[in-house]
Specification:
This protein has one domain. Helix content is 81%, strand content 0%. It contains two helices and no strands. Helix 1 runs antiparallel to helix 2.
Length: 68
């Protein structure tokens, strides 16, 4: 697979992982009334999971994006 296409696919998968996990956690926290919609807590949830996803994606990138 072409390196650019492989990189785009890799980032796209991580964005989907981030969005799915953060949304599921957000749903639970909203249902339990830990915080309200459009609150700082909600923003921190998505930012926190975003940062964690970036760290994981960076760590695993050589494994998936290494030279063929």
């Amino acid at each position: 697979m072409e390196r650019t296409l492989k990189g785009v696919a890799y980032v796209s998968v991580w964005v989907l992982i981030w969005g799915t996990v953060a949304s599921l956690i957000d749903f639970v926290l909203l249902e339990r009334e830990i915080y309200a919609t459009a609150s700082a807590g909600q923003a921190l949830t998505f930012v926190g999971y975003g940062l964690a996803t970036v760290v994981l994606a960076w760590r695993y990138a050589p494994r998936f994006l290494g030279d063929d």
